[in-house]
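May I ask for a sample protein chain and its fold as tokens?
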Amino acid sequence: MRTPLTSLRTNVELLMASMAPGAPRLPKQEMVDLRADVLAQIEELSTLVGDLVDLSRGDAGEVVHEPVDMADVVDRSLERVRRRRNDILFDVEVIGWQVYGDTAGLSRMALNLMDNAAKWSPPGGHVGVRLSQLDASHAELVVSDRGPGIPVQERRLVFERFYRSASARALPGSGLGLAIVKQVVLNHGGLLRIEDTDPGGQPPGTSIYVLLPGRRMPIPQLPGATAGARSTDIENSRGSANVISVESQSTRAT
């Protein structure tokens, strides 16, 4: 928390100094930029505090388990991400799937995965979101982007708290988003793995796969709709190369 606090304090001190009696006024555009920086730093701190609260809840086991409709979780998370990145196309395909778990945690997990994919996608890029059934008691949530990808040597590290790759340091973030994903998935008896979206491609992109236990449930149909998955068409990219799994609470990145 030290870095955003230090930056925030510096900017606030500059603004206060410029408003002191007799002090020279900052140029108008510089004042606008400083105020924008202050708001961005406050948002960064709010996100960091929220991430830390989510992690502490999971560590302490302070969650309420109940039936959770994952299709609804995905829809709500997509709404939030679309508001922030309305310049990205989301290709979505979900089935009705119920998990007995923590609604808040599962929602944060889905949101973090989609936010992460959107963050690494250029304007006009595509993010794929697919929830499909693997067997009678397991479904798989896959969130894919066409960004620069994650080097093989960093794929365990990205799920560790506060880890940020060299390329990610230029972008806003706390280094806790994927750590929360890992905690939530493992607390629900799930598995994680990372693959290239387009193995050998330039860029290769990143696909994060989440295996979730649960059971199939019907999705309410709109009048005139046909039965099946909600879909806006998604490419099913399942490259076999460069796979990494996170399997249990004892698994640690190295």
Confidence is low (pLDDT under 50) at residues 222-245, 247-254.
